[in-house]
Design goal:
By secondary structure, this protein is an alpha+beta fold. Helices cover 38% and strands 31% of the residues. It has 3 helices and 6 strands. Strand 1 (3-10) and strand 2 form a beta hairpin.
Length: 126
């Protein structure tokens, strides 16, 4: 198994720090992975769904520790890389003209998540 793409979408919440989308082997996409700042440091939480009794159940997760460790390392490395890029973005933006910065924004938006037919997503059926 190879994680062939990682996209980090930072959020500004107390404990939740980012949502992450990964692509495995260029053929399987997993959304809604969370990077959380917990009591013992940062960790990765897999996508989950709230049940009727109020508990949460993972929708997808690694079934062995080796895979979990690999997944967590790749995701957290991508998260820290993205945080470093964001820290440097204001410096780069202040050096360029405002018009040039606004022209590049639509391109950045088009580089977000790959489009996937909504028919394949369970939420579309509900």
């Amino acid at each position: 198994m190879e994680i062939t793409d990682v996209k980090v979408f930072p959020v500004e919440e107390e404990r939740l720090k980012a949502y992450v989308t990964i692509i495995i082997d260029n053929c399987f996409l997993v959304r809604e992975i969370k990077v959380i700042n917990g009591n013992s440091g940062f960790f990765v939480a897999m996508p989950s769904k709230k049940r009727k009794d109020g508990t949460y159940r993972d929708l997808a997760h690694p079934i062995n520790q080796e895979t979990r460790d690999k997944l967590e390392k790749v995701i957290l490395d991508a998260y820290w890389k993205r945080m470093e890029e964001m820290k440097n973005e204001p410096e780069a933006a202040s050096e360029s003209e405002p018009e040039a910065a606004s022209e590049s924004e639509p391109e950045a938006a088009s580089e977000s998540e790959p489009e996937v037919a909504s028919e394949s997503e369970p939420e579309a059926a509900q």
